Every structure is written in structure tokens, then in C-alpha cells.
């Protein structure tokens, strides 16, 4: 019964609690049993809050029995990347520097999930200061892919991806500055939403790059992502970059199936250049599914995406280094060698380089949107191949690791610079049993349309029904 419970989708779990078909206590106990089994295999959690979660679950069950109004996530266990602050609690940000640091305020993202009734099962592993694409962490141990423990989860939302894919929780917050939601979702067979820049408040969560950071969920199903995004999105007086544009009903969009007549643009140049054969074959099959759904598939010629990537790298390097400059001077030995080297690279950038990268941004966005040539969204790979191994991406043990790591966010990082919404959706599995996803890239604040497309595909190809063993 426990296995059946943890394989429920988030929306289904919430509805089961609301209708009294399942207790929140039963959901929580099933997740804790799953954690006991899978935490040793994945190292997804940094801390499990079992007692607190069970206490909260019992309170939800009592409230339901007395007829109290419940929130849309009431009694559903989640867990989150250890960069979302909760007042009075530790948040290490995956680092040694903040190993025992306690937050003085709670992030808006957590506050909104709390208000919706979600339970918080604990803090999840992540790349040190969210500045690493593999899932390696030299302070707390590397996260491991539930589909194959020798392979990376992707990063920096490594624990979030592992925990959700292994059915330890029903959803998790990640963050995406260069692909850190979409890329782990691809490697772990999940749905990962990077919203438009400004769609979700970043108040009281660890910053990496002010101009590129976004907050979003990792889930197993498209509708689950849609529900979480509906709760997370919207204006916030604590973060004046959070947009006041109305938030659409993403869950309704994900369930609509109304995609006939939409147009998907496929950018072969750059995005397909280095794609391995098994991934390419699976994605071609995916495009055929969309075509059968009545979606028109058209080709597009994107602008110079290498230049876009270069500009994104300048911004993230400069802004991350500025945030860490004092610690790099006063506490350099507390960084891992990999994180310190990446941060120190930004110290060599000039103000002219940074300003030029920012100044060109609006032109690059306009060029990409023009290249879409009237298409509703863009269909593209997330990464060149399925998850590589932990060994071949370990800079401490493989002389070729740097070359492999450089490819991991090649197809995601440009979209952060363009500030556009993009969602990873699982396409299926290639030989060897590793998942592969695709990303749907939209126009600014077109998250609802991405959910329509993703939900329609998932209804035909329910990858979420397959569990890691």
C-alpha cells in the first residue's frame, strides 16, 4: 500500500486528503518509509524533519475531520532545496561556510506553500551555493540519480530532483539560474518549470545571480507543477522584481488538452548540433506525438546562441563573484576547490564586459522572439545526452571532467539570459533505462501555454507511471 501511496501525483494526493480517502498521516508515513529506503541510495536529504512533519500531518487530519477549510496542498509532504530560508532554522546552502547559519526570516515561496497547507519534510542537498551543474557536493556528499546511482542527478537542484524522482516527496522547490531546475529534471525523469524572470518571488532565498535567478518546482507530473506554480507565482512587496501581472489558472491549462492548431518551432541549429543519437531519436518520436495532437511543427533558425551563452556566463560569473567577494578574501579555505575556482573566475571580469552583456540583453530577447516567426512555443532538447556518471564529472578524479561539465547546461543557460519561461517534460527512456526530457520554451509570461502543451503530451505518454527500482 505504501508504494501505491507514494506513486500518487501531488494533485491526486491533495485531493485524496481533502476527500478523506487518505490521511495526511498516512501520506507522511509512506514518504518517511520511502526516505528510509532511498536516502542511502541517493543522499537527497541533508535533514529530515520527521517528527515535525508527522505532528503537522495529524493536525491537518484533525482539521479535516472537524470540517475546517483546507488549503489546496493540505497535508501533502514536500521538501525543498536548502537555500529557502525558514526563520530560526539552519540553511546551509550546500556550503561549509553556512553549515550552522540560521535564517532570520522565511522565504515568500515557503510562506505561500505553508499557507496552502503543504508539509515540509526537510532540507534537500544541493550544489555548493547553487553554483554547480552536476550534483557533486564535497561537504555533504554527492547526490545520486535514482535511476542509476552511478550517474549524476544534475544540479544545482540535485537533492530536489533525487527526492521527487525516488518518490520520497510529492514535489520540491529548486532554483534555475542556468538550467538548475530543467537539467536535473531531464536527468531524473521529472517535470521542471523555470518560470519567466520575475514570475515568482525570490525574497529570502539564497541569491546567486540577481539578473538570472528564478524559483520553480520539480514534480513528477505536469499538473502537479501547474498547481505549485499557481500558488507560488505573483507579486510580492518583499521582492519588487516579482511581476504584478495576473497569474493564470495553470492547473486548468495543464488539464485542458487544447493544443490543436498551436505551432511549435524547432531550432535545429545549436540545439541539435551535439545531440547524441538515442536522445535525438526519442525527441523525433516526441515531435510526432505533438503532430498527432494537431500541433503544427515548424523549423526556426535561432540567433547566435553561442553569443547568448557567452553573455549569460559573464553575468552569472560577475554577479556570483560580487556576492562572494568578501568570503573569497576572508574564508577561501571553506569553499570546495571546484566552487572557489568558478567564483574566482568572475573576479577577472571587467565592468565593461558586464555592462555590455546587460546592454545587449533586450536585443537578444527580441531576436529570439522574432526568430520564432509566429510560433507559440519552441521545442528543444535539454541536454546533449542522458546523465553522465559521477566519476566522469568529478573534477577531483577525472582530467576530462571539465570538458564534460561544460556541456551540461549548454542548452539551458541561454534561456535564463533571455528571461523566458521554459519547462522540462519527460519524453521517455533510452537504452540503459535512463530518462530523457525536452524543454518547451515560451514567450514572456506564457507559462499557461507551456502547461497546455506539456499536459497534452503527458496524457499520451505518461512517463511518470514508471518508477525507479
Automatic annotation (TrEMBL):
Report the residue ranges that make up the Amidase domain in this protein.
27-450
Pfam families in UniProt: Amidase
Write down what this protein is called.
Amidase
Source organism: Ferrovibrio xuzhouensis
Amino acid at each position: 500500500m505504501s508504494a501505491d501511496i507514494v506513486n500518487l501525483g501531488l494533485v491526486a494526493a491533495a485531493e485524496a486528503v481533502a476527500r478523506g480517502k487518505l490521511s495526511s498521516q498516512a501520506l507522511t508515513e509512506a514518504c518517511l518509509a520511502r526516505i528510509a529506503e532511498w536516502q542511502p541510495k541517493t543522499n537527497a536529504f541533508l535533514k529530515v524533519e520527521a517528527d515535525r512533519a508527522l505532528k503537522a500531518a495529524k493536525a491537518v487530519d484533525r482539521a479535516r475531520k472537524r470540517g475546517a477549510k483546507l488549503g489546496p496542498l493540505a497535508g501533502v509532504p514536500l521538501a525543498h532545496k536548502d537555500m529557502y530560508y525558514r526563520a530560526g532554522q539552519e540553511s546551509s546552502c550546500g556550503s561549509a561556510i553556512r553549515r550552522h547559519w540560521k535564517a532570520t526570516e522565511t522565504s515568500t515561496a515557503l510562506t505561500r506553500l505553508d499557507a496552502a497547507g503543504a508539509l515540509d519534510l526537510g532540507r534537500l542537498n544541493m550544489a555548493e551555493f547553487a553554483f554547480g551543474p552536476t550534483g557533486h557536493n564535497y561537504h555533504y556528499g554527492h547526490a545520486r540519480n535514482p535511476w542509476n546511482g552511478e550517474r549524476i542527478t544534475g544540479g544545482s537542484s540535485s537533492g530536489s530532483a533525487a527526492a521527487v524522482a525516488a518518490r520520497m516527496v510529492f514535489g520540491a522547490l529548486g532554483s534555475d539560474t542556468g538550467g538548475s531546475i530543467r537539467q536535473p529534471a531531464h536527468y531524473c525523469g521529472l517535470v521542471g518549470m523555470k518560470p519567466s524572470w520575475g514570475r515568482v518571488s525570490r525574497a529570502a532565498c539564497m541569491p546567486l545571480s540577481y539578473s538570472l535567478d528564478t524559483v520553480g518546482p520539480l514534480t513528477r507530473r505536469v499538473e502537479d507543477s501547474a498547481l505549485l506554480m499557481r500558488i507560488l507565482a505573483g507579486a510580492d512587496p518583499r521582492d519588487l522584481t516579482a511581476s504584478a501581472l495576473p497569474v493564470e489558472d495553470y492547473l486548468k491549462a495543464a488539464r485542458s488538452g487544447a493544443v490543436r492548431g498551436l505551432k511549435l518551432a524547432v531550432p535545429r541549429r545549436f540545439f541539435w548540433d551535439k545531440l547524441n543519437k538515442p536522445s535525438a531519436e526519442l525527441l523525433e518520436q516526441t515531435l510526432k506525438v505533438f503532430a498527432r495532437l494537431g500541433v503544427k511543427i515548424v523549423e526556426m533558425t535561432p540567433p547566435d546562441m553561442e553569443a547568448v551563452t557567452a553573455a549569460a556566463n559573464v553575468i552569472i560569473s560577475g554577479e556570483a563573484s560580487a556576492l562572494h567577494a568578501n568570503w573569497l578574501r576572508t574564508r577561501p579555505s571553506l569553499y570546495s576547490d571546484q566552487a572557489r575556482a568558478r567564483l574566482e573566475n568572475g573576479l577577472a571580469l571587467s565592468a565593461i564586459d558586464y555592462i555590455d552583456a546587460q546592454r545587449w540583453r533586450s536585443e537578444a530577447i527580441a531576436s529570439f522572439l522574432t526568430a520564432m516567426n509566429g510560433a507559440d512555443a519552441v521545442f528543444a532538447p535539454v541536454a546533449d545526452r542522458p546523465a553522465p556518471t559521477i566519476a566522469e564529472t568529478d573534477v577531483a578524479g577525472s582530467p576530462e571532467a571539465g570538458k564534460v561539465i561544460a556541456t551540461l547546461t549548454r542548452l539551458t543557460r541561454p534561456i535564463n539570459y533571455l528571461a523566458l519561461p521554459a519547462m522540462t517534460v519527460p519524453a521517455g527512456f533510452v537504452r540503459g533505462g535512463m530518462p530523457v526530457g525536452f524543454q518547451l520554451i515560451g514567450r514572456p509570461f506564457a507559462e499557461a501555454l507551456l502547461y497546455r502543451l506539456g499536459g497534452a503530451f503527458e496524457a499520451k505518454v505518461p512517463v511518470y507511471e514508471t518508477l525507479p527500482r
